[in-house]
Amino acid sequence: MQESGNSVILMALAIIAIIGACLIFIYGRQTLGPTPTSAPPAATSGGAAAVAVPFEELVAGTHSSVSARVDYLITSASELNQLWTMLGTTDKMPSVDFTNDEIIAVFAGQKPTSGYSIAVSKIEDDGAARTVIVDLTQPGSGCATATALTDPYQIVQVPKTSLPLTHEDQTSTANCP
Questions:
Q1: 3-state DSSP: the chain helix, strand, coil percent, rounded to 5?
Q2: What is the pLDDT of residues 2-34, one digit of tens each?
Q3: Are residues 16 and 43 in the same domain?
Q4: Are 130 and 122 a contacting pair, CB within 8 Å?
Q5: From the CB of residue 132, how many other CB atoms can be counted at a distance below 10 Å?
Q6: DSSP states along 118-152
Q7: With 0-12 CB in 10 A as exposed, 13-18 as middle and 19+ as buried, what is 104?
Q8: Could you tell me if 69 and 108 are in contact, meaning their C-beta atoms sit under 8 angstroms apart?
Q9: Domain check: are 88 and 72 in the same one?
Q10: How far apart are CA 137 and CA 81, in angstroms?
């Protein structure tokens, strides 16, 4: 009886350790913060014009182990390996030159049906910050959806910057016939 009690304690400790490691990974990284609401981007940068930043999609999907709306900045191969593990994808992990580039990962969180998506639509540098514009799309009332939990995400590669990062979410509803 005592042996099964010890097994339960060890199992509980293992679960706590796994949850702790996930929380450290999720909250220990720099995430893209919300765009300040007190001033428009031009006022924040002293009126400097925003410059479009090129980016390349590495992978996108609807199933991951990330169930909350969150963004990640990935700046090393070990962090990319952790991210790839969270995705649970069979796709080959890309090779990234982290001396010149970094990765931005956007997750929509868990959704109740199919038809939801998330995508980086634009990235701009204005001299004071790099702003990532994220489109969140939900299915319209006329859309056919499957009743299945989904966790949409997109991973993009961008040139490295020393600017602080911010993001702006834009929500839209898909029009379906």
A1: 25, 35, 45
A2: 555 555 555 554 455 444 444 444 444 444 443
A3: no
A4: no
A5: 25
A6: EEEEEEEE-SS-EEEEEEEEE--TT----SS-B--
A7: buried
A8: yes
A9: yes
A10: 28
Structure tokens given for 160: 């490295």
pTM for the structure as a whole? 0.73
**Paired tokens of 3:** 């042996």
Assess whether 17 and 56 both reside in one domain: no
Q: Which domain holds residue 10?
A: 1-30
Residues 79 and 109 in one domain: yes
What Å distances lie between residue 154 and 3, 26, 43, 65, 86, CA to CA?
46, 16, 30, 13, 13
Encode pLDDT of 72-98 as tens digits.
999 999 999 999 988 887 888 999 999
| DSSP element (H, E) containing 168 | strand 165-173
